[in-house]
Amino acid sequence: MSNLKILIDEMDDGWDEKLNNLGFDAYSVKKLRAEGKKLRTDYSVINYARENDMILVTRDTESGQACEENQLPYILLDNEEIFKILLDKINQI
To answer: Which of 14, 22, 26, 56 would be a feasible disulfide site paired with 6, CB 3.0-4.6 Å?
Structure first.
């Protein structure tokens, strides 16, 4: 795979393991915090992703907006994105 590193926000802890099983280089905010990393605030999480050249995957709209404002790579899984998936699934029926 590529050198792409992915940081999974704490709400979706466990996705890192699934992505790792598929060959991605993924990390969990929750697990990194358990290892002693200081990742208690959105700012700390975003900064960690920036410093480590990671894409942040989050459901937190404010974190997504902060990444966008600072030209940092992110994937926002907000209600709008989930609704698009729902519509796509409905249209497949």
So the answer is: 26
